[in-house]
From TrEMBL:
Domain DUF7586 stretches: 350-431
Protein name: Serine hydrolase domain-containing protein
Organism lineage: Bacteria, Bacillati, Actinomycetota, Actinomycetes, Streptosporangiales
Molecular function (Gene Ontology), one example: hydrolase activity
Keywords recorded for this protein, A-Z: Hydrolase
């Protein structure tokens, strides 16, 4: 992917220049990622007297959680962890309820948001064994699965789960299994030069106060990592689906699926498995925000068109919530993505006879062949259940999404080999409405259609 146009770059730079000036940020970096590549990088402010670069480290806070989640999903894919396992199966000394691994990943465990003792983000950390021992029944604030309740403690436990399975620290597991394969060599648990210093900016004067930096130990999986804009650009590409062999793309897509929403009917924000989700400007975004004393960071991607944005700042507060989406809007305004060119696809599997109208009772559906070799079954009038299906080795089709996700579609033929009907998990689709020659459940009235 080529860099953005000069006019686009100017508009993006102006947006972060306004943000840095109005938010009184010591420094701010931002980047746009398209098709897995860094398409634009911009920076304002100073780090040690110089403009920060794409190699300047910032603390990324809770973006750390997503990387921990990836190792957990690797354990799941290896068969060592089931997402429905009680967490106590993997941490037997835990005395808090029956929450599952999936509930920790999606912040639906009901666990307390923060750990016992002083505020962990500004205090020396405790060992994992001490944290686990300190979590009693009072740490359960809600019934597991009942609601979205963000829990830093939950990801501390996931880090401990990783450590117990891998026999190394969570940070070493992340380093070996994610960072090295993806080439994210400048992402580390503690800062390395050049890095930004975290500051608080006085609310009524243009002066700074350095914020503390320490090893959070047991709570570190909730927000310990430092990274660079260049490494975060690679991470954005990973979340969008360029997984580099670290996870199967289908597993990352599973992580991006909504497990819970945090604003009810509005559904503008939610959580998957270790990934935050947002809906804005017609886009569905996945990624994560991050904050620690002295630092703010965010990575958002839209996997549907493989575009992402990110920022890092060394201030406890001051970055507006809409900065990332404003950057996306600028990109859309100046360089709207062109649709992929349509090209014909040969019917190598001989599926053409399946296409066209099918009827579920009197309701009309259309079956289409998809470029990837799958099929879609959609209601013609727009109202009804739509799903895509992928071929299976036994000749059936597996539902990928919608109401029929995970369900089986069978093509039923007559003894002479001609098409009879489709059986979709007991729902029968026929070539004519209520075809009397097909095996319609309950049968078809012998009198047929009448006035």
């Amino acid at each position: 992917m080529s860099p953005v146009l000069e006019s686009t770059a100017r508009a993006l730079l102006r947006r972060i220049a306004v943000e840095q000036a109005q938010g009184r940020l010591p420094s701010l970096t931002a980047a746009v990622v398209r098709d897995g590549e860094l398409a634009w990088f911009g920076a304002r402010g100073r780090v040690e007297g110089a403009t920060p670069t794409s190699g300047t480290q910032y603390r990324i806070g809770s973006i750390t959680k997503s990387l921990v989640a990836v190792v957990v999903m690797r354990l799941r894919d290896e068969g060592k962890v089931d997402l429905l396992d009680p967490v106590a199966k993997h941490i037997p000394d835990l005395r808090v309820g029956e929450m599952t691994v999936a509930q920790l990943l999606s912040h639906t465990s009901g666990l307390s948001a923060e750990s016992p003792g002083p505020w962990w983000e500004r205090a020396e950390g405790m060992p994992a064994a001490e944290l686990v021992a300190a979590l009693g029944p009072e740490a359960a604030k809600h019934r597991p699965g009942r609601r979205y309740h963000y829990s830093n403690v939950g990801f501390a436990l996931l880090g401990e789960l990783v450590a117990r399975h891998r026999g190394v620290s969570w940070a070493q597991a992340v380093h070996e299994e994610i960072l090295l394969p993806l080439g994210m060599r400048d992402t580390t648990p503690r800062p390395r030069a050049p890095h930004a210093t975290g500051y608080a900016v006085h609310p009524w004067a243009d002066v700074l106060l350095p914020e503390p930096e320490h090893d959070a130990v047991a709570m570190a999986p909730a927000g310990q990592l430092w990274s660079t804009p260049a490494d975060l650009a690679r991470w954005a590409a990973f979340v969008a689906g360029d997984t580099g062999g670290v996870l199967a793309p289908d597993t990352v897509a599973e992580m991006r699926e909504p497990a819970i929403v945090d604003d009810g009917d509005a559904w503008t924000g939610g959580y998957g498995l270790g990934l935050q989700l947002a809906r804005t400007g017609g886009r569905r975004l996945a990624g994560h925000t991050g904050s620690m004393p002295g630092f703010l960071a965010t990575v958002w991607v839209d996997p549907s068109d493989k575009v992402g944005v990110l920022f890092t700042a060394n201030s406890t507060s001051g970055v507006s919530r809409n900065l990332p989406t404003d950057l996306l809007a600028i990109l859309d305004q100046h360089e709207p993505r062109l649709p992929e060119e349509w090209t014909p696809v040969a019917d190598t599997a001989g599926l053409l006879e399946l296409t066209g109208p099918w009827y579920w009772g009197p309701s009309v559906y259309a079956l289409r062949l998809l470029p990837d070799g799958g099929v879609s079954l959609n209601p013609v009038g727009g109202a009804g259940r739509a799903s895509r299906f992928t071929a299976q080795a036994d000749g059936t089709w597996l539902g990928l999404d919608g109401y029929y996700a995970g369900e089986t579609l069978r093509v039923v033929r007559r003894p002479d080999g001609s098409l009879s009907h489709l059986d979709l998990n007991t729902f029968v689709f026929t070539r004519t409405p209520y075809d009397p020659e097909a095996d319609v459940p309950g049968g078809v009235d012998e009198g047929g259609w009448r006035s």
